[in-house]
Known about the structure:
Blueprint: H1 5-17, H2 21-26, E1 28-36, E2 41-44, H3 45-58, E3 63-71, E4 76-84, E5 91-101, E6 104-113
Parallel strand pairs: 1-6
Antiparallel strand pairs: 1-2, 3-4, 4-5, 5-6
Amino acid sequence: MKMNIQTMISGWINASNAFDTEKYLQYYSPDAVLDDPSVGRKFKGHPGIREYFENYFIGYRTHTTQVNLLISDEETAHLEVEFTGDFSEGNIGGTFDFKFTAGKIVFVKADLVHYP
Length: 116
């Protein structure tokens, strides 16, 4: 069965916006890596990704809105988002570059986009 990337990304965003850590982690392979240069770290596996999610999403009450999704193929996608939350900017853009295998996120590079 072919994975629907748009449906998966929508569910992933919904889990994030609901601050549902367990559901959020279900979208990731157990050995996935999340690389976020904006915080200067790579988060490895479910324990690392849990730490990232709890610190930067739950901790700042971050709400994510999809702006644009470019699906390259069945394994890669680029997502542009807007974040709002309890952080100094209040509203900031972001990107996620995904790599999928077997219906799970195996790698994602997350970054912030600073508006001029």
